[in-house]
Amino acid sequence: MNAPVPIARGRTVRIDQTQRSAATVAGLAFLFTDATATFVQFWVRPATIVDNDAAKTAAAIAGAEWLFRVGIAVQLGMIAGLVTLTAALYMVLRPVGPGIALLAAFWRVVENAVLAVGTLTSFDALRLLSGAAYLRPVEADRLRALALSSIDAYGDAYSVSLLFGGLGLLGFAYLFLKSGYIPRSLAAWGVFGASLTVASTLVSIVVPDLAAIVYPWVYAPLLIFELGTAVWLLVRGLRPPETVSA
Hints:
Layout: E1 4-8, E2 11-14, H1 17-48, H2 54-63, H3 65-93, H4 98-128, H5 140-179, H6 184-206, H7 208-214, H8 220-235, H9 241-245
Antiparallel strand pairs: 1-2
Helix pairs in contact: 1-3, 1-8, 2-3, 2-5, 3-4, 4-5, 5-6, 6-7, 6-8
């Protein structure tokens, strides 16, 4: 039998089986999206992209085009995982705060839309470096420069997506904190990590040189929250009502 969970004065909700199942999906999705994002950002891109050097980047992509394409495929899989994660978190947390849960889910939908559009720039880079007959009238150096510009555009899209993703996770972490479904210390850490992500993204837009100094360590708190929440949801599940009441 589902017992009521105190959420706020004069209001109770119940943890039902749908929420528990969604929590398991959310835990798996957290692990999947973190793993795929790490693969793309810290393996594929460093192996195929040389900052501010169009010629070396073109040579790196030509020498490992398969890896570059695998990175695109994994990126698309990550986006699908993020959509799944968003839906699962919404199902878990909607009874706690329907309005905030909906807004958080909307922010994360925007995040994934920006990421999906940004991923298209990788296809542009491949097209410009393909050596297709219709591109032969254009100088090779210009094609390489345009390809690197397309790749840099993805970097901009990724930064913008972090802003909206941070806002979404801020809402979800707040609802976890309010509900007590996970340890409140972990949820509070998530609020801190998400707030730091949003603030650092905005600051890096105004002061671009700062991004090179703080990246990627500024996102470590949010990653700790995501991994910690994933492990908790998969091992312990949503905290039982009596634990929340205490």
